[in-house]
Amino acid sequence: MDRTIVVAAVAFVRDGHVLTVRKQGTSRFMLVGGKLEPGESALEAAIRETREEVGIEVADLVLLGEFVSETANEPGHELHSTVFLARKDVAAEPSALGEIAELRWTDMAAAAAGEYDDLAPMLEHHVLAKLREPAQE
Fold first, then answer.
1. How far apart are CA 48 and CA 102, in angstroms?
2. 66 close to 127: Cβ distance less than 8 angstroms
3. What is the pLDDT along the chain (137 residues), one digit of tens a residue?
4. Dihedral sign from CA coordinates of 26, 29, 30, 33
5. Where are the domains of the chain?
6. Are strands 78-86 and 4-11 parallel, antiparallel or unpaired?
7. How far is Cα of residue 75 from the mean position of the Cα atoms in its chain?
């Protein structure tokens, strides 16, 4: 059995905070995003998942990176994530839709200081460090 989960995600950064979501029945916050559908590219999945999860239509996405980590909610699996950065601040405010139980603008400085204990491994160990690099914001 393949224990690899392939996903696409989008990082929205505003004033030193990144938009994170917590899915229903889970305790960890992660980026907006999810699994690719058959025949779908990572970019197409990122756009679709953003619309489905937070109700935002995005078009101006750039590749932030591809990362591998343990999963947040599926023990024994490995997560392969293609992460995009929304380069322009969107006019619409995000809303928790579909499987999303909660939204939070996570403070990146506080996360770097270890002040959160509820971040998904991919976000905590890979994406936040990349987002804090000078050229990202």
1. 19
2. no
3. 568 888 999 999 988 999 999 999 999 999 999 999 999 999 999 999 999 999 999 988 999 999 998 888 777 888 899 999 997 666 678 999 999 999 999 999 999 999 999 999 999 999 999 998 876 44
4. positive
5. 4-131
6. parallel
7. 19
Residue appearing with tokens 């969107």: 90
What DSSP state is assigned to residue 125?
I
| CA dihedral for 105, 108, 110, 114, sign (positive or negative) | positive
Q: Tokens at residue 127, please?
A: 């994406």
Q: Where do we find the tokens 């200081």?
A: 113
Q: How large is the C-alpha radius of gyration of the chain?
A: 14
Q: What is the fold of 4-131?
A: Nucleoside Triphosphate Pyrophosphohydrolase (3.90.79)
**Alpha helix (H) ranges present in 85-126?**
108-112, 121-122
Single out the residue of 84, 21, 6, 24 nearest to residue 54, CA to CA.
21
SS (H, E, C) 20-31: EEEECCCCCEEC
Sequence-ordered list of residues with C-beta below 8 angstroms from that of 12, at least 6 positions apart, any chain: 18, 19, 32, 56, 86, 89, 90, 94
